[in-house]
């Protein structure tokens, strides 16, 4: 199951695991893959620094990476208060009225609402990059295309490789021209921010587009060894997985929202929807009463990033704490239908490797 990307990073298996939870990322790295810590949720870069310090101490010297979000469009700057003033009152009223209809209670008095996710802001993402460059991470990835040229240069000076997600062949071509080392071909099936082209079509198209200029990792619709084998057959040198880790023990112990776990375990592959209501950009989420409310007559159009996430920030906290699985605001890919139990990362990794190897062996006998 080894590919050239394994030799590049010194990992045992070409499985890259994206997760917002350091405990999950570290477990992926220890199990022979490469854990990627999502930085966007760290509004305070000092908290990201603490998380990466923890990674340094708990990966047994195995490599890991950091994923940042560097948006290119305004409004990209300003304090939460500045940006808050740009949110229309009608949108606020819609959110509050929807929460009332869904029976979602207010936050307790001792749980003040946060500022939302500020990692979408270019200035915050810049600080995330500075933190990553100060740690021995081996890879820095950008979820919204290639990082700025100076970030790529500095990463290369530190011996770090740079990856960028692509939902179209044209995007991938531009990424490589910008100096990106690895392209992550992310198909329509993926959770979170995703494009419109399915993985079966997108992966070989991007592989053919970039040729020998950059290795390609496959993302979207990958949750078992058969799907990993399919990605390798399509020309990818490895896989980039995100949703599969949401039902691991390491993720569960960091979450205080059992309703989220119940929603994930109950969902089928038909129970997701691609919408802009989470962040302002198209993202695949669990389909439920909250997402449905935004499609009904009279619902406003979602705001652009980062305003939409600021708008729904308190709502997300209330929805998560409500105890209602059918309103949880959770990004998840279509492979959620395979996620039927809570188990350790090491067990999931072992199953992925075993099944991939078995499939490759079986296919080899067809000649």
Order of helices and strands: HEHEHEHHHEHEHEEHEHEHHEEHHH
The biggest beta sheet is recorded as: 8 strands, parallel, barrel
SS summary, helix count? 15
Strand content: 5-15%
Q: Which residues form runs of ≥5 with pLDDT under 50? A: none
**Helix percent band:** 40-55%
For the terminal residues, how far apart are their CA atoms? 19 Å
| Tertiary shape | globular
Radius of gyration: 20 Å
Would you kindly provide a written description of the structure presented here, covering whatever features stand out?
Helices cover 41% and strands 13% of the residues. The chain is of the alpha/beta class and 367 residues long. Strands 1-2-3-4-5-6-8-9 form an eight-stranded parallel beta barrel, surrounded by six helices. It is globular, with a radius of gyration of 20 Å. The relative contact order is 0.15. The mean pLDDT is 93.
Task: Provide the fold topology.
Blueprint: H1 4-9, E1 15-19, H2 22-30, E2 34-38, H3 45-58, E3 64-68, H4 80-84, H5 89-101, H6 122-133, E4 139-142, H7 149-157, E5 161-166, H8 169-177, E6 182-186, E7 192-193, H9 199-210, E8 216-219, H10 225-233, E9 238-241, H11 249-252, H12 258-266, E10 272-275, E11 283-286, H13 289-293, H14 307-321, H15 345-364
Parallel strand pairs: 1-2, 1-9, 2-3, 3-4, 4-5, 5-6, 6-8, 8-9
Antiparallel strand pairs: 7-11, 10-11
Helix pairs in contact: 2-3, 3-6, 5-14, 8-9, 10-15
